[in-house]
UniProtKB/TrEMBL annotation:
Residue intervals of the HTH asnC-type domain: 5-65
PANTHER family: HTH-TYPE TRANSCRIPTIONAL REGULATOR LRPC (PTHR30154:SF53), LEUCINE-RESPONSIVE REGULATORY PROTEIN (PTHR30154)
Keyword Transcription regulation set for record: yes
Source organism: Inhella crocodyli
Gene3D superfamilies: 3.30.70.920, Winged helix-like DNA-binding domain superfamily/Winged helix DNA-binding domain (1.10.10.10)
GO cellular component: cytosol
Protein name, UniProt field: Lrp/AsnC family transcriptional regulator
PROSITE patterns from the UniProt entry: HTH_ASNC_2
One Gene Ontology term of the molecular function aspect: sequence-specific DNA binding
Organism domain of life: Bacteria
Amino acid sequence: MSAMLDDLDRGLVALLQANARTSTADLARALGVARTTIVARLSRLEGNGTIVGYTVRLGATQGVQGVQAYVNLSVSPKSAKAVIERLSLLPELRQLAAVSGEFDYLAILRAPSTQRLDALLDEIGELDGVLRTTTSVQLALRVDRVA
């Protein structure tokens, strides 16, 4: 978030992250302030770039069936570009991030089944330049604030 937020701002943002369609009257009731205070805060938060939009998130059963996994990859520096190019061709790849720490990259995969995930992991592990991988399979999503 781009500006310093006070407790009221943080509460407002949290409520909107849970349900961006909540009315200003309901937000005001939940936060114990006047509706006009909420309107002013929203205007300020939108104006300073803290809130940059409102969106729709699909439920877990809408178009995202299957299994999600987080794959840490150690990659030979000389092979990084080729590995990234090859990974980007996988339709199951949702995100690929360069990360600090023990591993070089974090890949987020969504496969339709554990069998397909297993095959993907084998395919990734066999890529020239991939030195090591570790995988965590998502069992349940407890908090989701990403649209």
